[in-house]
Each structure stands twice: as structure tokens, then as C-alpha cells.
Specification:
This protein is α+β, with helices and mostly antiparallel strands and 755 residues long. It folds into six domains: 223 residues, Hypothetical protein af1432 (Orthogonal Bundle); 148 residues, Beta Polymerase, domain 2 (2-Layer Sandwich), CATH 3.30.460; 119 residues, Ubiquitin-like (UB roll) (Roll); 80 residues, no CATH class; 62 residues, no CATH class; 75 residues, Alpha-Beta Plaits, CATH 3.30.70. 52% of the residues lie in helices and 15% in strands. It contains 28 helices and 20 strands. The strands form five sheets. Strands 1, 2, 3, 4, 5 and 6 form a six-stranded mixed β-sheet that branches. Strands 12-16-14-15-13 form a five-stranded mixed β-sheet. Helix 2 packs parallel to helix 4 and helix 18 packs parallel to helix 22. It is globular, with a radius of gyration of 32 Å.
Amino acid sequence: MVFLNSFHYLAIDFLSIMTEQTFFSPDEYKLFLALYHKLLRLTGGSFLPGDTRKLKEQLVKAIASGKMTRDIFGLNPILKSIQTAIIVADEIGMKRASIMGIMLHECVSSETCTIEDINESFGSDVAGIVRGLNRVRELYVKSPSIESENFRKLLLTFAEDMRVILIIIADRVNIMRQIRDVNNEEGRLQVANEAAYLYAPLAHKLGLYALKSELEDLSLKYTEHDIYYHIKDKLNETKKSRDAYIARFIGPLKQRLEEAGLEFHIKGRTKTIHSIYQKMKKQKCPFEGVYDLFAIRVILDSPLEKEKMQCWQVYSIVTDMYQPNPKRLRDWLSVPKSNGYESLHITVMGPEGKWVEVQIRTERMDEVAERGLAAHWRYKGIKGETGLDDWLSSVREALESSEGTGLEAMDQFKMDLYEDEVFVFTPKGDLYKLPKGATVLDFAFMIHTKLGCSCTGAKVNGKNVPIRQELKSGDQVEIMSSSSQTPKQGWLKIVVTSKARTKIKQALKETEARQSAFAKEELERKLKNRKIDFDESVMMKVIKRMGYKIITDFYQNLANGTLDTNTIIEEYLEQLRRETENTESQTHTAEGFSLQKIEGEEESSNEDVLVIDQNLKGIQYQLAQCCHPIYGDDIFGFVSIKRGIMIHRTNCPNAHDMRERYGYRIVKARWAGKSIGSQYPITLMVVGNDDIGIVTNITSIINKEVGINLRSIGIEANDGLFSGQLTVMVSDTSKLNALIKKLKTVKGVKNVSRL
């Protein structure tokens, strides 16, 4: 009754605010009241006395301030918060601190209250969540899109409090649900792509399978609209026969389980639209060719001490009735996944020769499977998940130590998410979990960094093996080491875990730094012996003139003998002589100074016309041949394995596939300036009536255009129509668009399009 009264007074306060402002539309206001009522029903029992009153005061104050703003999709911030709070409460099972944190973080963002105010009114637990959410919000201020580097920062924030990661996943699910009809198509595509390649894998790792599936399906709906509805329509067409088949499968199985005296219930389900699409692509077949559409879940009402026994009993009954596929057995009962998932999966041949996946688990296991590790928290508290804590520690360690733009870190992170696991033992019987493909060297670094750096090999099951030996589940591993051993560059090709890779890079960097420092000291000493003063700025120009972009690379080559010290000294003296001559010439006359190119400077007019990712210039890139971007096109960068960064148009025919399969390699790119005299080859397709003189008219227009050159032309005519491809050299999109517009005015031309 207390909560309903609070709800009633909150409604009155919001109504008074609404009459003075346009913060809520009438429909939004009705929705807010319904959602607030639902939220109280879901979480009211966990609230402390006075929580709803203080929450009401903060929200009313924030709205009245007029500082709350809608996001780029036009979503109301309070409505968005309460929708996310309901997902967190209803679908993940989190309570007071998380709900309060979600509802209050917009108040702090709008500067109507502070973290200290939240701490005083609601406690440090709520304040901590608000702090984490607002740190994440800062990354979204300019764009709804999260690039790899920002996602790296996001994960570091997640790792401080596990609840924040769950809230952000819920928030992304909420956004995906709300943006169906928004006008910002570009923003929707960016958010949808991220949902598939960043947030869905993260939800999967944390055991939030229902949310993970929804993110994938909605992403497919927004990015591949026609494919999504094609599969959906097919599922609707076959629903009746599919339901009948599941009933035929379940009927006899249910009877056998009842005869065994088991308490249970059975669910039949169809695979998600996204998973069906993935199978269609993998098997290169139409919808009708995907046979394993069915999954049956047997959920036992079993006491804790009998869970495993009864699950294996059901397994025995199922495999007695239907022929199993032994290659498709997945035993997560004996050793659960790191996210707490426990279940027994088997694929069997059902009636009519159709494959059916059967999942066997208990009520407790099913709750964990549906809600992830959060399902434990009602009973065990927030910090009770050691397996996940270990995983987050490794993620945090890799991210904090990673270099560059974060692409490599994200690549490794995604690999860690998807890899299967192997379990190995120490000689004392301690169990360690590693990704599939992990080597002896990975295991050594997992135990301790010092042991990894000095590892020379191992005894696996009593047999001596090298450091590159791949480990298998059940191996007993004893690491061998030597004080004279040091990490080598080649070790990076041996290891697969992010921790080992990070520690090896750190060790190599430390070694290089010591060698570089020694080489620099040696160079300065030799200059001093020859009575030559060392000038850092002069040496920097020498290093730059020799083609080095990284100073440590120069000193490293000096240390390993690739460069000769005496040669460097001669180059240094030559640079000193040039600078002396330049100084003398400037004292005589300034005439012609503006025409001179200062030694070492680059021609800005012909370089760095692109800015890559986080305002980085000077990065090597190539313009993709598949879409031929030119100055003025909307573009993005793709980090290729062998050719550096490839620049594509955003509407490149390969763009969607790259974003879906390799989204973590996508970087921002924009034109920073136009190179003087630069021209790009562009191919145009021209279609029209095959009239006399039409080709002459087309080429005449092109020849009259200033700054546009015709490179090649190919025309084919058939049945009174012609089609041709023209390759022209243009400098930017404005000239290209003007040319296309003029060509369309030529009598007989039906269409002109850019290939």
C-alpha cells in the first residue's frame, strides 16, 4: 500500500510538471505511469523505506530543470531508463541498487544532483552503479556508435562492477526494441551492427541467452530486412506442421519419463531467426534445406543432490528411444561453462528422419541459463561468482595493457568469447580452464608471469613436450623453467590467450627499452669523445630523414647492429652543417623563403588527406577497388591483414558483410582535405536509346567539363537500346554529381549510375 501511495503522488507531481513543460508527450506520459506501476510491482519488496519518495523528488527536480535532453533517436531519457530498469528487474532478476542506479543516473548527468547526493540519500552501492553508468554515458555523448577503442574503455568500466555490464546489455536491448520506426537510418544501422558483433557475444559469455538471441534477431531485422522477414514468413507458414511434429516427438518421451517417476516439464522451441540464417549461410542452402530447426528442453524438478543423476537418467531414456549422434553430445554437467551454464545436450534422430536437439537440465540450471549468473545473486550476493571474476580479471588485464587503437585487443577479446574451453590439471590436482588451442606456454603464463617468462617446456602426462605443445582436456601439466630463459618475439605466434600475449609483449618492450637506452647512451658517448655536442632536435631530424617513424625502432636497430654508429654520426654532422647554412642564408635575405621547402617537412597538399579512427594522421591506407571511394564520399576504414587500412564507401556492396563478420576491424575515417591535382578513376553505367550521335553527345559533355578526363569508353547496342561503361577521372563527388546530372539531360539517355 505504501508503494501504491507513492506511485499516486508521483503521478500527481509528474502531471503538474507536464502541464508546464513538454517533457512528456501525452502518450509517453500514459506509458510512463503504466511502466512505473509495473516497476514497483517487480521490485517494491527490495526497496528501503523512503526510496520511492526520494526517487520521486530527484526525478521531478531533474525534469523541472529543463536540462534533460533526448538522444539522437528522439527517445525520452526517463522513459528509456524505466524501460531498461524493467528489463533488468524482470528478465535478469536484479533488484534495488541496480534499479535505483538506472533511474538516477540521468539526474546526475543533467547536473541536478551529484554522486555525493546519491551516496548520502541511497547509499554507496547505488552511487557506485550511477558512477559506472555515467562513465559509460560519456562515451555515447557524440554518437550512439561505439568503436573498438571506446568499447575497450567500456569493458574496463564494466569490470569494476559486474552489474554495470548487465545494465548496459539491457539498455542496448531496450534501444533495439525502441528504434524500429525512427528516421535516423544511419544511427540505427550502427547500433544494430554493434548489437550483433559486440553486445550479443558479451551477453552470450555471461549466460544471458534470451537477451543474446533477441539482440541477434533484431540486428538481423534492421540490417537484413528482406532476409529477416523471408525467414519469419517461412516459419509462420510451417508453424502448424512444426508444432505437430514436436507434439509427436514429445508424446512418447513424456510417457517414458512419467513411468520413471520423474518430476518434469518439457518445452518445444524453434531455433531463432538469426541462427537459422547462419545455418542457411553455412550450409549454403535455402530455408527448406535447414533440417535441425527443432529443440526440445526437458526441465527436471530435482533436489540439488540428485540433479546430475536424474539428468543422466533422462539422457539414457532419450537415447534408448531415439538414435543419438555421438559427435553432438555436449556435457556441461560434469564441468559447467565459465558463465555458470549447466546442461546436457544431445542431438537425436526423431520421427521422419529429422534431427532434434534435446537439452536436459533442472529448474535451477534453467534459471541460470535464462538469466545468466545474475540468477545466483538473490542467494549468494554480488561478489560470489569467482569464475566470472577470473574471466573479468583477464579481460581487464588485457585491455589495460593493450596498445594501438584497441583493434587487436578487440580481436583477441572476441576470440576469447567464442573459443571452446579445455581443462588441465597441475601435478597437485588443481584444475585450470583455458581456451581451446592453448599451449604449454599459455598455461605457464596463466599460473604466473615469472614462470611464463622463464618457461622452457613441460611434462604433460609424464612426457617431455616443447612450449608450443597444444593442451587437451584432462592433461596433467608440470612446467619446466630456466633462469636463463627470456621471452622471444616468436612466442607471440605460439600463445592464444590474451594474458600470455600481453605479458610477452610487455617483456619484449622492456627488453627493447633497455637495449634502446643503452644504444642511445653509447651514441652520445661517442659524440662526446669526438667533442660534438648532442642536440636532441637535430638527431630527431636525422631519424626522420632515415625513414623511421618510431624513435625506439631507430635505437633498436642501432643496438642490434643493423645501423652503424659511425654512419649515424656522419649523418648527424651533415644535418648540423645544413642547419648552419640555412641560418646564414636567412640573415642575408628573406626573398624566396616562402618558395623553399624546409628539410624534413612533408608536403601537406599531397599527404594525410584522410583522418583515420581517433584523429590519427599519417597512417598508411589504400582506396578499395570494389567501390572506388573519392573525395566527398561517406567512408569508413577496414583493417586488412596484409594491406593495411582499406578505405571503403559506406554504401560499398561489401560493407554489410564486413560489418557483420569483422565488425571489430571497422574504424572511422573522414576526408581531412583534398590533395591538389589528385584525380580518381570512376566508372559510370549509361543506359539509353541507340540514337545517331548519342555517343558523340555524351563524350562532348565530358570533354567540356573542366577537371574531368575521359579515360575509357565501351558501348554495346541491342534491339534499339545501348548500355555503356565510361571511366572518367574526377577529383571529388561534387564534380562527379554535376557530370551525372548533365549526362542525364542528354536526349535518349535513360539512366546514369555510378558503379
